[in-house]
């Protein structure tokens, strides 16, 4: 692989108090690793490309700890939809129409969007795993209007053995895996399965070092945190999504067991999960990151995600002061806190802080160069504030993943975007025709009945 010397950039660093600084530093990248970082580094021989970063902010790649990547191909379908409507229209609706070829394009679209925005790591909670592996019953409805769901109660001993082999063999595991795509376990169903089965599966994941992610939304009947706490279950590297408004007992359980939490403030606020609790958990010393969640519904970048998380918390803090008939003397929620969540905090939340999330020797070379001369970034003097409050995906000039440059001068290098955009547009037209005759209100009503929610709607 080429060697790179990123020269003279304003390099994001954090101290132990999560306070950012941006010293002028050089970064030497060899293979897929940050080899050295410091002032005035030499090129150390021929074959090293020097990248002038003197007018750029140099950041670790952003980390999205909870995203359903394929949903990028379903943008604008659920813009005005609360949670049940989202499930009826998308998760248990339009998703059922996707073929393997559609899914390939959808995943490529979503991954391309993330890279274009400077996101170099995603924990992809995928609802559409290819069924030929038979690791679980296929959860999509068998039909719509009327909606018929498959029997999800079947489990076979072969499933555990097969999942173990997938985790240790190519392409998702084993020595031939380069670490860019690795296997994990999305285990929302643990709340609704026999306890012994959940114990077996979680112990298997712990023994085999397989990360586990689960949604944790009590009001949607997914009380994953309380399920883990109450039943004293084995704890592999667990990442919970959402976990809005946990009490002090559950917060302490998160902290003492090093369970990661990923807040997705845009969807949590819009779909009624509860109040985003990223700052509460960070203040309590928990592992906390951020995520986009639903690219069909909201922004696909971490800049908007950081801003919403920050301003929501400031609003909550101010409301508390106003209830005392007081004004806040200072902002407790600061740009450094949320910038940490989008980088090193995100790595901690998905248990990858040894490899990712900060610019340090020995870590993977996931690096982003951000312009400071665009109309939205010019005249900024505080680089941390600029990243959180003013930056847009168009300001992301260069993106490096695993030591490989995938975006440069604002242009994607690994895909022909014009060609891909044409394919995506044509594919979306075909999809619209495919689900044209569905009565979505009937689908919602049927799903509400199947989930015993019809008496809860108002």
Explained architecture:
It is globular, with a radius of gyration of 22 Å. The chain contains 14 helices and 18 strands. Strands 1, 4, 5, 6, 7, 15, 16, 17 and 18 form a nine-stranded mixed sheet that branches. A five-stranded parallel sheet has the order 10-11-12-13-14. A hairpin with a 2-residue loop joins β16 (396-401) and β17 (404-408). It has two domains: 1-61 and 359-415, Roll (Urease, subunit C, domain 1), CATH 2.30.40.10; 62-356, Metal-dependent hydrolases (TIM Barrel). By secondary structure, it is an alpha/beta fold. It holds the Pfam family Amidohydro_1. It comes from Talaromyces rugulosus.
Describe the structure in brief.
Keywords: Hydrolase. The protein contains 14 helices and 18 strands. The protein is α/β, with parallel strands linked by helices.
CATH homologous superfamily classification of the largest domain: Metal-dependent hydrolases
The biggest beta sheet is recorded as:
9 strands, mixed
Percent range for helical residues? 25-40%
What structural category characterises the helix and strand content? alpha/beta
Radius of gyration: 22 Å
What is the first-to-last residue Cα distance?
Answer: 59 Å
Global mean pLDDT: 91
By CATH, the topology of the largest domain is TIM Barrel
Oligomer: single chain
Number of helices: 14
**Tally of DSSP β-strands:** 18
What's the number of structural domains? 2
Q: Please identify the top-level CATH class of the largest domain.
A: Alpha Beta
Shape: globular
Poorly predicted regions are none
- CATH architecture classification name of the largest domain: Alpha-Beta Barrel
Strand residues, percent: 15-25%
């Amino acid at each position: 692989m080429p060697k790179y010397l990123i020269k003279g950039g304003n390099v994001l660093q954090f101290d132990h108090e999560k306070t950012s600084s941006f010293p002028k530093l050089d970064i030497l990248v060899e293979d897929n690793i940050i080899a050295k970082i410091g002032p005035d580094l030499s090129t150390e021989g021929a074959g090293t490309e020097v990248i002038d970063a003197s007018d750029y902010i140099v950041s670790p790649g952003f980390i999205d700890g909870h995203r359903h990547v394929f949903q990028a191909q379903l943008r604008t379908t659920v813009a005005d939809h609360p949670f049940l409507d989202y499930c009826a229209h998308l998760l248990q609706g339009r998703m059922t129409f996707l073929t393997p070829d559609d899914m390939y394009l959808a995943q490529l679209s979503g991954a391309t969007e993330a890279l274009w925005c400077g996101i170099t790591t995603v924990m992809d909670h995928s609802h559409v795993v290819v069924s030929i592996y038979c690791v679980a019953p296929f959860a999509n409805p068998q039909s719509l209007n009327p909606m018929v769901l498959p029997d999800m109660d079947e489990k076979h001993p072969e499933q555990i053995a097969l999942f173990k082999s997938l985790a240790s063999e190519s392409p998702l595991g084993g020595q031939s895996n380069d670490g860019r795509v690795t296997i994990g376990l999305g285990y929302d169903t643990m709340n609704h399965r026999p306890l012994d089965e959940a114990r077996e599966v979680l112990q298997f994941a712990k023994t085999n070092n397989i990360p586990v992610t689960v949604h944790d939304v009590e009001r949607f009947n997914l009380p994953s945190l309380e399920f883990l706490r109450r039943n004293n279950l084995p704890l592999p590297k667990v990442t919970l999504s959402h976990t809005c408004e946990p009490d002090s007992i559950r917060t302490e359980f998160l902290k003492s067991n090093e369970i990661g939490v990923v807040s997705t403030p845009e969807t949590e606020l819009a779909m009624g999960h509860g109040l985003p609790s990223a700052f509460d958990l960070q203040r309590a010393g928990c592992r906390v990151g951020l995520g986009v969640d639903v690219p069909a519904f909201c922004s696909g970048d971490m800049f908007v995600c950081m801003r919403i998380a920050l301003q929501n918390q400031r609003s909550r803090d101010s409301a508390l002061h106003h209830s005392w008939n007081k004004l806040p003397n200072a902002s407790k929620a600061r740009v450094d806190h949320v910038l940490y969540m989008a980088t090193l905090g995100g790595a901690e939340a998905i248990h990858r802080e040894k490899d990712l999330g900060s610019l340090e020797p020995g870590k993977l070379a996931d690096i982003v160069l951000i312009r400071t001369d665009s109309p939205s970034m010019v005249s900024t003097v505080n680089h941390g504030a600029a990243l959180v409050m003013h930056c847009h995906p168009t300001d992301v000039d260069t993106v490096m993943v695993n030591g490989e440059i995938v975006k440069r001068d604002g242009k994607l290098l690994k895909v022909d975007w014009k060609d891909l955009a044409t394919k995506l547009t044509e594919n979306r037209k075909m999809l619209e025709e495919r689900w044209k005759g569905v009565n979505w209100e009937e689908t919602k009503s049927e799903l509400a009945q199947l989930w015993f929610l019809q008496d809860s709607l108002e």
